[in-house]
């Protein structure tokens, strides 16, 4: 079954944070077909190449349905909860963390993409929505969105459809991944499985290995709390 795009979006780096930190979280809808390479959509920029972009974060997908849930929970910010709010490249109805699995392969126009990892929400969401603990709320809710790697480069139209063509890991929904990483520490059996899962982005496999080796979860505060400067 095909899932149509609601919007296809790219963004440029701009001053964003409390001290003018750069970000390309503000993404605008494109009106024509656009090239998707191994590193993402043509014209889509990343300010922080360490934590954003790269082969395993070429495209970000956020389910449009989540915006209604956020608007109910945070009515004062309701006007901000619209497509593009989370800095996503792809917006759809009908796909979410409970129905999408790690390693899922989709045909989208002439490109082929694969789910590579979940999202680690960061403090820029606090700034984006004017809610001091927004990143923590996103993490706790499981409404994080996810990333793709591009297996076959191609062009994508704004009205393209995503068609699932392969599901190698049906037991690893993104909802399960999120639960293991953010809620079920330490589930050593699940972490061991993730550490060996080749289709999972290397940084996430290394995270699982470190947790197994140390018995500890990494500190999230620097990622979740807005810096003062």
- Tally of DSSP helical segments: 7
Quote the distance from N terminus to C terminus. Answer: 47 Å
The CATH superfamily title = PK beta-barrel domain-like
Helix and strand sequence: EEEEEEEHEEEHHEEEHHHH
- Give the averaged pLDDT, no decimals: 94
Radius of gyration: 17 Å
Helix content: 10-25%
Folded structure, characterized:
The protein has 229 residues and is α+β, with helices and mostly antiparallel strands. The protein has helices spanning 65-73, 124-129, 134-141, 174-182, 188-195, 202-214, 221-224, and strands spanning 2-11, 14-15, 22-23, 27-29, 34-37, 40-41, 59-63, 90-92, 105-108, 111-118, 146-152, 154-156, 161-166. The chain has one domain (2-224): M1 Pyruvate Kinase, Domain 3. The mean pLDDT is 94. It has seven helices and 13 strands. Helix 5 (188-195) runs antiparallel to helix 6 (202-214). The strands form three sheets. The chain has a seven-stranded mixed beta barrel. A three-stranded antiparallel sheet has the order 6-5-12, with no helix packed on it. The chain has a two-stranded antiparallel ribbon with strand order 2-3.
């Amino acid at each position: 079954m095909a899932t149509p795009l609601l919007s296809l979006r790219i963004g440029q780096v701009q001053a964003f944070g409390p001290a003018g930190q750069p970000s390309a979280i503000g993404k605008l809808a494109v009106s024509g077909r656009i090239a998707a390479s191994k590193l993402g959509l043509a014209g889509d920029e990343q300010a922080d190449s360490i934590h954003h972009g790269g082969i395993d974060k070429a495209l970000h997908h956020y389910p449009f349905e989540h915006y209604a849930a956020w608007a109910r929970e945070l009515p004062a910010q309701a006007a901000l909860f619209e497509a593009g709010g989370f800095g996503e490249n792809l917006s759809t109805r009908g796909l979410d963390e409970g129905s999408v699995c790690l390693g899922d392969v989709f045909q989208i126009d002439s490109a082929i993409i694969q789910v590579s990892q979940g999202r680690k929400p960061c403090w820029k969401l606090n700034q984006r929505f004017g809610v001091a603990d927004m990143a923590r709320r996103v993490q706790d809710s499981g409404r994080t969105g996810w990333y793709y790697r591009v297996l076959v480069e191609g062009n994508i139209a704004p009205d393209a459809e995503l068609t699932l063509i392969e599901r190698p890991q049906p037991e690893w929904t993104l909802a399960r991944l999120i639960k293991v990483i953010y809620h079920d520490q330490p589930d050593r059996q699940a972490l061991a499985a993730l550490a060996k899962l080749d289709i999972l982005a290397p940084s996430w496999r290394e995270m699982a290995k470190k947790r197994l080796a140390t018995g500890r979860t990494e500190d999230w505060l620097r990622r979740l709390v807005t810096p003062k400067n």
